[in-house]
Write a structure and sequence with these properties.
mainly alpha, 7 helices, about 45% helix, about 5% strand, elongated
């Protein structure tokens, strides 16, 4: 039970968990399989577990939601056995899985990001060492860029 509380605290904040964190928890714990338990089913279970006017669930509601998911995950087993199997799977979860984008390091990417090969107006936006000049490298707006000046000249 303390392992389950630790998992809840890793995904929740201040003893509560909102719907997005609960959905992330179910995906990271491997409860969502796309067949028996879908993301839509997770949202429905979350809304059944929380209080009618609440936006977040506490630990007791979290346990209730896990019980509902356990019944859906193991439909042929008794509730206690399904809940025990689900809790065992959940307790193996280390915490939120961080996913990010990794830049490619191939020849095409190197060629596209090589500022020494830039031409035209873009060549003036970088220093010799390849670092950007920021606003100093951009063109200054023309005197007719403001609509009020264009109208005033008529």
């Amino acid at each position: 039970m303390s392992d389950l509380r630790e998992v809840f605290d890793k995904f929740g904040k201040d003893g509560e968990m909102d719907g997005a964190k609960f959905a992330k928890f179910t995906k990271d714990a491997g409860l969502v399989d796309g067949k028996k338990i879908t993301t839509t089913e997770v949202d429905i279970v979350f809304n059944k577990a929380k209080a009618k006017t609440a936006r977040k669930i506490d630990f007791a509601a979290f346990e209730s939601a896990l019980g509902m998911l356990a019944d859906k995950r193991y439909p042929g087993k008794p509730h206690e056995e399904a809940l025990a199997n689900t809790m065992a799977d959940v307790c193996k979860t280390k915490g939120p899985i961080l996913k990010g984008t990794v830049a490619q390091n191939d020849e095409v990417t190197k060629r596209m990001t090589d500022v020494s090969q830039y031409t035209g107006t873009h060549v003036h936006r970088f220093n010799e060492d390849g670092t950007g000049k920021g606003k100093a490298g951009r063109d200054a707006p023309s005197s007719t860029a403001d609509l009020s000046q264009i109208v005033a000249n008529k």
